[in-house]
Amino acid sequence: MPSLLDRLFGRVEKPAHTAKSRLKLVLMHDRADIPAPMMEEMRKEIIAVLSKYVVIDLEHLDVGIERAEGGVALVASIPIVRVNAEH
Amino acid sequence: MSENNTRVIVITSGKGGVGKTTTTANIGVALANMGEKVALIDADIGLRNLDLALGLENRIVYDIVDVVEGRAKLRQAMIKHKQSQNLALLPAAQTRDKSAVNPAQMRQLIEEIRAEGYTYIIIDCPAGIEQGFRNATAGATEAIVVTNPEMSSVRDADRIIGLLEAQDLRNPYLIVNRLRPKMVKSQDMLAVEDVQEVLGSNVKLLGIIPEDEVIITSTNKGEPASATEGSLAGQAYRNIARRLRGEEVPFLDLEERSGFFTRLKGLFGNKK
Hints:
The complex is a heterodimer. Chain A is α+β, with helices and mostly antiparallel strands. Chain A folds into 2 domains: about 1-30, no CATH class; about 35-85. In chain A, about 45% of the residues lie in helices and about 25% in strands. In chain A, the strands form 2 sheets. In chain A, strands 1-4 form a two-stranded antiparallel ribbon. In chain A, strands 2-3 form a two-stranded antiparallel ribbon. In chain A, a hairpin with a 2-residue loop joins strand 2 and strand 3. The longest helix of chain A has 17 residues, at about 15-30. Chain B is α/β, with parallel strands linked by helices. Chain B has a single domain (about 5-270), classed as 3-Layer(aba) Sandwich (Rossmann fold). Chain B is built from 12 helices and 8 strands. Chain B has helices at about 20-35, 50-55, 65-70, 75, 105-115, 130-135, 150-165, 180-185, 190-200, 215-220, 230-245, 260-270, and strands at about 5-10, 40, 80, 85-90, 120-125, 140-145, 175-180, 205-210. Chain B has an 8-stranded mixed beta sheet with strand order 3-4-2-5-1-6-7-8, with helices on both faces. In chain B, helix 7 links the parallel strand 6 (about 140-145) and strand 7 (about 175-180). The interface of A and B includes residues 19, 20, 26, 27 and 30 of A.
């Protein structure tokens, strides 16, 4: 509960502002909600494309959605074993 | 009018109760009174309501499912509006469910209506994101998303915008309904700009409708507010119709107009 002083000096966050920041957060989650099968398909395709050029350490590969300040990102950590000699 | 000029617009929201049906009725009547030939389709099968908003509930003989299943001709089922001769309603079936008309049938139906020379076909979409939504949006080429300046409604609008995109209905129009200018001024309610910021730049603001008791009384009478002068909400809906027709219309200054004298000015000072 905000103190009287906080109220007097307008240091209480206005309901509209609270609503806006809560909405932004929840939409970030909603929008990044990629269904598991789609995620898996994406992962496979990314691997397929990269494998033309490099040999990937599949054990330590990590592709996922990360929520950072300002937005949602698809973050991939793809350890490379070596360049694909066939290329 | 060439049949290629028909605009097929679906009115959606995701969340129920935000004013889709009222919006469909009001825009339909406003467009018809501006000389457009308007067909309204109630796609909310099983929960028929657009007939009530238009005061046409006693004149329904056939409905959309009767047409799709061949029991009635399109012209038999379309109900002409009493006051607005340019306006016709294809009512929803009340005793069937949302699977009664599939996307292919909806597209076929819209082609038939288009061939009748309508310039606007406006579809009132059911709430929700399931089959009813997919059926209602199937034949549309433009979409309007209605939201209230309230969290759950904006959240659902965001979801709907994503689903519309998936149906190739990109850059939908946005209508913010039930805005309370005083609450926005005291920062107790989301402002239109907040809603726009949250939903992103791929939506185009089409109109702002203030919370107005006229909507309740006009719905009770079955006469959409946009049919008569004198109410803010009615004027806001007429402005939306004009914007749809390509006119540049400034947004109403809701704050300035909330006083008694400015309201009087609104009553007597309407030019268009």
